[in-house]
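Task 17 of the worksheet. Students: predict the tertiary structure of the chain below and write it out as structure tokens. Keep your answer in the requested format; marks are given for formatting as well as content.
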Amino acid sequence: MKKELKIKYVPLLFSARLIDNWHQYTQDNKSAKEYVKKFDEFLIRYNTLYKEGEAQILFRFSAGLRDDL
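Model answer:
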């Protein structure tokens, strides 16, 4: 049922844009707190559409952090 609702109400463009934005999201000059907050927002939105393993999430999180941290 969840899959059918997702197909009906979530446009493919929205899903693709969400994934692209999350893949490109980095800390840049934001504080760690701001980065974590936005990362969590992406994670919540993404997990309503798809499931991703913990290792992949941790990799994505650490890849977006600045090198000096």
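Marker's comment: The longest helix spans residues 32-49. Residues 2-64 form one domain.
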